[in-house]
Design brief:
Elements: H1 6-29, H2 50-74, H3 79-104, E1 108-112, E2 118-122, H4 129-154, H5 164-167
Antiparallel strand pairs: 1-2
């Protein structure tokens, strides 16, 4: 069995997905019939038949599933950080929206008065924009720190999957 880190497993997974996508596209474009008594045109599938290509895609999908399970199993060491990262991304999105809302809020508004003129009404913000931005920056720093930790782990943590088992399929 080859030595496969989470990072290299991600690259292999991307290759598998790309190969599945390409073959699936070719299958979608190909005719599922041929003229009676003629040989099947295999040029679209690099010399393989339509049925062989479908079987290859099915095998690739099974390999992808096995690789995903192996990655998931290896990623147990990163689970808490992955959950924290997901939460931080949601917080960042929320606080970016809130900060943007604070930036766009008017400071005054005008209302017509009974004399036909306009009265200036000062508006008070409900939130402290500086505090919101400070929190947002803190979330971004925490996210960056976790991403660095995960990247380091991804280059060290091994995945129980033999990359040679799919090399011929790619």
């Amino acid at each position: 069995m080859g030595n496969l880190t989470i990072a290299s497993a991600f690259r292999l997974r991307n290759k598998l997905k790309e190969r599945i996508k390409n073959l699936t596209t070719q299958i979608g474009r190909a005719d599922a019939v041929k003229d009676a008594g003629t040989a099947e045109n295999t040029s679209l599938f690099d010399g393989k038949t339509f049925a062989e290509t479908i079987k290859a895609v099915d095998t690739l999908m099974s390999s992808l599933r096995e690789l995903n399970l192996a990655i998931e199993s290896a990623n147990v060491v990163n689970r808490a950080d992955l959950i924290a990262l997901e939460t931080l991304k949601a917080r960042i999105a929320l606080f970016e929206d809130i900060a943007d809302k604070c930036r766009r809020q008017a400071k005054v508004r005008y209302e017509y008065n009974t004399e036909g003129g306009k009265d200036k009404i000062d508006l008070e913000p409900l939130l402290d924009q500086t505090a919101i931005v400070t929190q947002l920056e803190g979330f971004k720093k925490d996210k960056e720190s976790i991403e660095e930790k995960l990247a380091e782990s991804n280059f060290k943590t091994t995945v129980n999957f033999d990359p040679n088992s799919v090399k011929a399929l790619l």
